[in-house]
Amino acid sequence: MHVLVLNIRQIPGPQPSRIYKNVVPEMPRIRERAGKTYTYVIPRLDGTVILGGIRDPDISNTKVDLEVDKDIARRVNKTLPEHFSADPADYDIVGHNVGIRPYRSTGMRIEKEVKEGQNIVHAYGITGGGYIFGFGVAREAAGLVDEFLFPAGKARL
User: Fold this and answer.
1) End-to-end CA distance of the chain, in Å?
2) GO: which molecular function terms (predicted)?
3) 114: exposed, middle or buried (C-beta count within 10 Å: 0-12, 13-18, 19+)?
4) Structure confidence by residue, pLDDT tens digits, 104-123
């Protein structure tokens, strides 16, 4: 994952006169396309916007790549040209995030096993879905730990 964090006040177009917490804006459209890369725009309450989207499972380099920034800006502009320039130089970039997301070609692994006498609970391979799936994965993993700790089941009083 590679993202640009922009100051929302630098984005062309109407600016909010006030910023309120817990406001859900109407999305006139959501676009989804299939392919190797994906693109997203996430406005944040602190006035910044995250532009992101690259998926390359064979790269483990965490250094910022300015060519990737340009590609993300170009793709965001292609999707929302009325709001975003294709040139990252047009924005006040306040940060970069480069994340390595563990993945498995066969999908998430959430299971328990006993190996060499050790009880092991596996919960990984979520890729970029950790934010979305995190609580469900944690609940499932906790249930598997409970199965190790309480093999006869928990007492219900």
Assistant:
1) 47
2) D-amino-acid oxidase activity; FAD binding
3) exposed
4) 778 889 999 999 999 999 99
